[in-house]
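Annotated sample (chain length 95).
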Amino acid sequence: MNATLLFGLAGLAMFCLGLGALFSQPAVLRKILGLNICGSGIFLLMISIAYDPAGGTPDPVLHALVLTGIVISVSITAFALALAGREGKPGGQAE
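Output written by the structure step:
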């Protein structure tokens, strides 16, 4: 088993674990964490696809997409946590 296959399978396993947590957990915070794990699995899978085992240069487009996805994932997580924090307050108003 080479490194590309190992990282690809690890990314697929992370995606499946995150998807399972997203649909099975009733708590909002656990759903947000499951979505983050799911996204991290996709990022790992994309990086393993971009790797060139022959020693050539890896695909820079996939690397740029992963970096952009990480930035978007962090901002979406912050927004989701802010919405989840407002959900517990009466009237939806922040103090």
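Annotation: The chain has three helices and no strands.
Annotation: The chain has a mean pLDDT of 89.
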